[in-house]
Amino acid sequence: MLTAEEVSQIEHEISLVPVRKAAGIEALKIVQQHRGWVSDESLKDTAAFLGVSAEELDSVATFYNLIFRQPVGRHVILLCDSISCWVMGYEKIREHLMQKLGIKYGQTTPDGRFTLLPNVCLGTCDCAPALMVGPDLYQNVTPEELDEILSRYN
Amino acid sequence: MEKPLTQHITPDRKPLSLKEYEQVGGYRAVHKILKELTPEGVTNLVKDSNLRGRGGAGFNTGLKWSFVPMGPEVPRPKYLVANADEMEPGTFKDRILLEGNPHQLIEGMIVASYAIQADISYVFLRWAYKKAAQEITKAINEAYAAGYLGQNILGSGYSLEMHLHTGVGRYMCGEETALLNALEGKRATPRAKPPFPQVSGLFGKPTIVNNVETLCCLPHIVNNGAAWFKGLSRTGDAGTKIYGVSGKVNKPGAWELPMGVTVRELIEEYAGGMKNGYRFKGALPGGASTDFLVEEHLDTPMDYPSIAAVGSRMGTGTMIILDDHTCPVGFVHNLQHFFAQESCGFCTPCREGLPWVEKILLSLDRGEGKPEDIQLLNFHTKALGPGNTFCALAPGAMEPLQSALKYFGEDFERHINEKQCPWK
């Protein structure tokens, strides 16, 4: 079941587009914002609300990198693995994160705190290597300061 | 040296409020077009200015607009979309404009919308640009409150709505027809052309998609004229350009400069030269999908025809440097991993070919390459080249590969002969 708040936010998005299902991506974003990820059940409820099949909405949900169809931790770390960050040695950051958190790409720490994902170019190549934790951008990151950065997130 | 696009952007990128923006001449272009110019007049002015699309393709902006059907009998609503889905690896120029002066973008969007008589406009912003999303939302609200957006703008009878859409991450969204599919809530796969979006775009209506930097040039062209805009440049291509340099240089960054500064000036003067102990080996001049330039090209002006004449593309004008301590095979492998991952999977050569290329490069990188691999890679640069795929993604991916094989062929051979990466 979608909550009243989710319904009202999705209705607003529907009002901005000429056909109901065009609000599909916005609806997925709204559901994910409230629930952290989009479960099969959430997907079915959202699809029914939009008047499309769950399969059709899933084809959209799974196309985009940042709609999560699996549970994620409270904070998602997006590590840029594109060219400028590669040249500037992002692999050291990756190794440090994986070792420190004890997880690989796509995994979540057992305490549900962090999920680690690779991400394409974050558009801050003059400050490589870069990563995001949730909505926060970190630039010119060194392995030494990673522990301090992570400690800001509970 | 004039820097119209970035003159009001401070190093901390705290943007001007609407009031502050007006005080430095902001929104004058909106007053001017609504009072003094017809939509056709604006289009002709921009055509005359020789403004070329800053997203990478370099098409004449006014000419692009001129394909939109005009007059009372045409399909409505018409749409204008700002392509703010900056995702070309190595590119970080639109972020500066989006975060640093959102009102300039909104003003440019009003100018473009008026020229094509659009009814609704969207900023298609990539998800990762959180600060930009906040600033643009605030600026759009201010523009509505001041009467620059909404019904009957400044009493002119012209009306325009504007919305922000944040994407959920896919390189394909930068391709304009794929972007339109994303805006319609669909998978971002490219559409067949024709019909071109100018005639049948968003929800089947006439639509123009312009890059952020392109749109930000417009208020200045309206205020100062086509001749002034042309005069900003050192070469035949008009205006300024936001150039960038990343990689092992002393001062990586982005700078608004006259169109046509040379590759050498960018690297040595603005980026402060190579870091101590590193030598320049090559550069992708305008993002991941452009051909390498090497030492012999350093004095080439960075404009569309000059870069094309030496076998590459201006692209986004943000350069990525390959230094002598970095393996060119590894460099290209990183790029092909990106392209293989971001292929939408819609057409076969791209979906199947790019992962194959990635795999071959990985085996070379690990010292497991075979002599015939070079031939296979060369085959792919043709098979995935222009004319064989549905959109420009795979041909773009082949540009750095084909030029790496051409300039750094010896380094590829060494990986095979020495059965290891010489840089490891």
Automatic annotation (TrEMBL), chain A:
It holds the Pfam family 2Fe-2S_thioredx. [2Fe-2S] cluster binds at C80, C85, C121, C125. Binds 1 [2Fe-2S] cluster. It comes from the Bacteria. The keyword Iron-sulfur applies. The keyword Metal-binding applies. One of its GO terms (molecular function) is 2 iron, 2 sulfur cluster binding. Its cofactor is [2Fe-2S] cluster. InterPro entries: NuoE-like (IPR002023), NuoE_dom (IPR042128), NuoE_N (IPR041921), Thioredoxin-like_sf (IPR036249). Keywords: 2Fe-2S, Iron, Iron-sulfur, Metal-binding. Belongs to the complex I 24 kDa subunit family. PANTHER family: NADH DEHYDROGENASE [UBIQUINONE] FLAVOPROTEIN 2, MITOCHONDRIAL, NADH DEHYDROGENASE UBIQUINONE FLAVOPROTEIN 2, MITOCHONDRIAL. This is NADH-quinone oxidoreductase subunit E.
From TrEMBL, chain B:
The keyword Cell membrane does not apply. Its cofactor is FMN; [4Fe-4S] cluster. Gene3D superfamilies: 3.10.20.600, 6.10.250.1450, NADH-ubiquinone oxidoreductase 51kDa subunit, NADH-ubiquinone oxidoreductase 51kDa subunit, iron-sulphur binding domain. Residues 329-374 form the NADH-ubiquinone oxidoreductase 51kDa subunit iron-sulphur binding domain. Signal peptide: none annotated. Coiled coil: none annotated. Pfam families: Complex1_51K, NADH_4Fe-4S, SLBB. Its EC number is 7.1.1.-. Composed of 13 different subunits. Subunits NuoCD, E, F, and G constitute the peripheral sector of the complex. NDH-1 shuttles electrons from NADH, via FMN and iron-sulfur (Fe-S) centers, to quinones in the respiratory chain. This is NADH-quinone oxidoreductase subunit F. It comes from Adhaeribacter aerolatus.
